[in-house]
Structure formats: C-alpha cells, structure tokens
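Troubleshooting log. The previous run stalled partway through. Resubmitting the same two chains, unchanged.
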Amino acid sequence: MNYLITLLLISGLVFFTGGSIGILRLPDFYTRLHPAGKLDTAGQFFTMSAIALFILQDFALANFLTAAKIVLIVIFVYITSPTATHAIVDAGVRAGLKPWTKEGQI
Amino acid sequence: MDSVFLYSGFYLTLIMLLPLYRAIFGPTVLDRLVGVNAIGSKTTVMLILVGLIYGRVDMFVDIALAYALLNFIAVLAASRYFQKKKGLYEE
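Second attempt completed without errors. Output:
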C-alpha cells in the first residue's frame, strides 16, 4: 500500500514539474495557459488521491470525513480551474492581445 | 512514510519558484495572473502535506478548502477587473 501511495505522489509531482516548466518556457500568454490549466489540475488529482489513501489506511469515522473533504476539494478544483482559465483567456481576447506566431507569417 | 511527505514538501517548494519568476517578470499583467494561479494550486496540496507532517490533517483540510476557494475568487475578480483597461498590455 505504501508503494502505491508513493507512486501516486511522485506521478503528481511529475505533473507539477511539467506545468511549472511549461509556464516558464512557452513563448506566449495563450500557450502558457495550457500547462497552467491542465497539468496543475492533473497533479492536484494524483497528489490528493495519494494523501486520501494514506489517511484511509487506519479506518475510523474522523479519517473518513477528512478523506471525503479531500475528495470535495478535488471536485471543486475540477469545476473551478477551467472556469478561471476561461476567464483569463476572455480578458486577454477582450484586451486585444495578439497570439504568438513565427515571425512574419500571419 | 513521514520522510516521503517531508521531501515531497521540499520539492514542491522548489517547484513553486518557477511560476514565481513568471509572476514577477511577466511581460503582461495576465502572465502574472497565470503565475499566481499556478502557485495557489500548488499551495493547496502543500497545506495538506504540512498537516500530515504535523499530524493535524483534520484542521489543515479546512484551511486548504478555504484557500482553493480564495484562489478561484481572486483570479476571477482580477481577470474581470483588468479586461477593461486597454493599452495596459503593450509594454
């Protein structure tokens, strides 16, 4: 069971690493939203599921309530993270930001 | 098992420095907003890891839930506010 928890935790950290490097290195504002929207949500899902499995190892009612709250956080993030990303894209489009192209060709 | 969570917290803190660069030196205001959003989504995980290290998960889960809500509201309000100011983005 501990190996499964460690594997889930490490895969979540890998997703977080990819999202951070993508935010740092991609050329444009619109392309930077792609790792910020997707990879952070996936990393949060894997890490939270690892922590919920660790809490549910010794089974009691209080631990079950804590794990249910963690599941609620994951559901909340899955609803609100695309909404926040769409709000930022909408602000960029209304302000008239041009998307990045290779120089000279539109 | 405690040391796994401890080193995961250290690594997550190191990873948070990369969106912090984007939040400080970002060319436009919306880039800074993306960086702050990424730091907030990592902090939600970080708070529960801190709760596991201290042994008080039942308290820190509520703080993490409130932080996720606050992060969402902050990004939504800031993006609604900054879309009215044209000419702010071309530096």
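Takeaways: The radius of gyration of chain A is 18 Å. DSSP finds three helices and no strands in chain A.
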